[in-house]
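Students often ask why we bother predicting the structure of a whole assembly rather than each chain alone. The short answer is interfaces. A chain on its own may look different once its partners are present, and contacts between molecules only exist in the joint model. In this exercise we take two input lines together and write out one structure for the complete complex. Read the inputs first and try to guess which parts will touch.
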Amino acid sequence: MHVLVIEDEPKTSSYLKAGLSEQGFVVDIANNGEDGLHLAVHGEYDLVLLDVMLPRRDGWSVLANLRGEGNRTPVLMLTARDRVPDRVKGFDLGADDYLIKPFAFSELLARMRNLLRRGPVRSVGTVKVGDLELDLGRQRAARDGKRLDLTPMEFRLISLLARRAGEVLSRTYIAEQVWDMNFDSDSNVVEVHIRRLRAKVDDPFPKSMIHTVRGVGYVLEEGHG
Amino acid sequence: MADRSGGRSLAVRLSWWYGISSCLLIAVVIGLLYLALLRNFDQQNERYLAQKVSILRTLLEESGDRAATVKWEVEEEQAAHTSIRVLSRILSADGTKLYETSGMSDELPVSVIVGRNGAEVRSLKGRLYRVAQVSLPAKDRVLQIQAAIDLGYQKDLLTRYQNQLWITVAFGFAIALFVGHRIAHNGIQPVKFMAAAVQEISSHNLDERIQLENAPSELAALCETFNQTLDRLQDAFGRLSQFSSDIAHELRTPINNVRGELEVALAQSRSTAQYREAIGSALEECQRVSRLIESLLFLARAEHAETGVHREPLHLSTELEKLVLFYEAPAHDRGITVDARVPDDLYAHLDRNLLQRALGNLIENAFRHTPRGGTVTLGAKREGERLLLTISDTGSGIPKAHVARIFDRFYRVDSARTPAEGGAGLGLAIVKSIAHLHGGEVHIDTAEGRGTSITMAFELTKT
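Now the answer. The structure tokens for the assembled complex follow.
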């Protein structure tokens, strides 16, 4: 996957490049709007991350020109300006998504994958991660062949983690996807749910699958340690 | 009172009005008196003339035209009067003069009077007379009586009188202007005093108030209003500066943590696990700062109604059940029961995300104040045209002293409570602003030791 990052703040672009490269993306950086537009038009990118405040040509203009050229590459805007009119302007100009600084890197990854996938998430069939097996249609979970007794919400939580296995999901994202709670809270509600899920999914087995990435979120991985 | 704001000074304006109106009043009164005087003179003149004619007629009829009395009456009677000169003459039928007051022909020859009964006539010498001519059939012939009354004396009097009137009006006007100016000036004095007092007030001495002694009632009201404005301003100012220092304090702790942890981590070589721990912890602090900034921005924008409210029809029991599902686990951990009591047919147009955020804040707040074994209840009901959303707990309640300020930013009931336990103290402020964004309001009902319920009320007609 080829991603273009148009961002003039060197620290931001450098951590984006490092982080995205680790996740398997090939990353190009443009540190001003003019170069960014040139690369976006002439390169073959799967996704563009676009800052709004840029030297030489601002993000709005880059986006407008890109869409003016008939280029439909998904564009995710990154900005510290989150007034409602700004967001509306972004979407009007043809942005696909909008992320406000400061954002969690895991959140950025989740949104990028969403844009790249752009298909409905599978809700039937089975998902298998290591010895964990989920039957999405019948809402049944089993590990090592043993049936897990989960509440419907716990099943939604484990299936979200399993479908995105290996991906660190932030608490906010989890709350949004599982409980449809669209606000960021200081509280540890998601942590409590994860702890209860672990008691059923990990504790009875020698290897745990649900891991906490401190300060970032949670990830489900094939059991180790 | 200089010409400061474009308009003319109130005192000057008032004195002009006083001056002009008094002047008009004087002029009207004097004018009416003058007219009355003129009329009086006219009537008097007419009476004198008529009297003269009637005396002559009587004498002529009784004694005939040769009688000495007639001659005396015509030629000599005038001497008896000093102020009013009445001239007269008697003509025979063929127009020859029989008698006349001496010198009459020099001024008023026969021809001047003929045919002008009742008119005012200017004599050959330029004096003004009112004249009368009456035909008198006597025995076998017709006699003519001509009489004239001298108006010159009256005219002189009136002219003098007129001049005096003009002088009086002019003086009156000047006096009225002066008195008016004094009155206006004195009347305006408290306003000037107030302006000076107000000018003295700035952000440094917002605690000062305007004190007008013996202020007229209109100004007293203005003073009162202004002082109340100052009260509110002072209050707002106080909150604002408290708010700034609260923000600084709230930021200080997490930033201090990040700085310290990272410094310590870098001070010597450590295991990967220790680095992870340090970075993770720093990350958590960053998230805390991010959330704080987000909350502050939210509040600031809500105050200026910049936050977009995206209303959609919500089935309230579904929304509240979702919250119960989300909060059930942490409640269970705390030994608290959460449940929702919502009629199934309740709908409202509200912003889903904002509603969740407000209710989430209220639930988390209730958790903090409810001991093990307690219950937190989410209620929704319709009351008339209002929708009431209530979160009630069986917790410790809020002491009376805190109730009034509970919705203020950064206000914590227990000041010793750390942010980790109690949040940044913005939760309830956000609840309040979310209610306001929807045109609703928040009420709190609390009794120490018996629990608290906080209600958001929305107009259903608006929702």
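Check your guess against this: Residues 2-117 of chain A form a domain with the Rossmann fold fold (CATH 3.40.50.2300).
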